[in-house]
Every structure is written in structure tokens, then in C-alpha cells.
Amino acid sequence: MSTPSMAALPDVTAAPHDVDLTHVRWRKSSYSGGANDCVEVAELSEHTAVRDSKDISRGPLLFPKAAMRALVTGIACGPIDERWD
How far is Cα 78 from Cα 19, in angstroms, rounded to an integer? Predict the structure, then answer.
């Protein structure tokens, strides 16, 4: 498996003020066991929003959908430090 180029990674930004997140459906991992110490994600049209469930007042980060897919795929492939040594 090839590793992605670091130069090809899309920008991750803080949610701009004009993005309406009031009616999005936030989801937690089923592995969190109902605890309030994980991240939550919400699907938007062009991005995935990610926020800290312990401090939602800080606002989410927005990941382009391709970046979020790459992140989840990379995590599923195993420990990152073993692939990039």
C-alpha cells in the first residue's frame, strides 16, 4: 500500500461563521460507550465537521470529505507509526 503525499493533504479549517451548524446531526462513535469524552462528527454538503464532545463551545473543525475519508481509511489500516518508519 502506498502512503499519501503530505503535500497533497487538503486544508482543515475552523468552521467559518457563515456555516449554519444549528440543525446538523452530531454522531459519536459507538465505541465511546455513551461517555462524554470523545469527538463527534456531522456530515455537511462538502465537509465533515468534527468537534470535541467535552467542549462544544470551541466550535468544530471542517474537513473536506476526501480528507475525512483518507483519515478514516488510514486509521483502519493500523498504527500510522508502523507504516511511516
Answer: 33
pTM for this structure? Answer: 0.66
Q: Which three cell numbers stand for residue 66?
A: 476526501
How do residues 35-58 score in pLDDT, each as one tens digit?
667 888 999 888 899 988 888 888
CA atoms within 13 A on the CB side of 77: 15
Q: Are strands 13-14 and 27-28 parallel, antiparallel or unpaired?
A: unpaired
Count, residues in the chain = 85
Among 9, 2, 24, 7, which Cα is nearest to 64's? 9
How far is Cα 28 from Cα 14, in angstroms, rounded to an integer? 19
Give, rounded to a whole angstrom, the gap between the first and last alpha carbons of the chain.
14
Structure-block grid coordinates of residue 16:
467559518
Contact 9, 58 (CB under 8 A): no
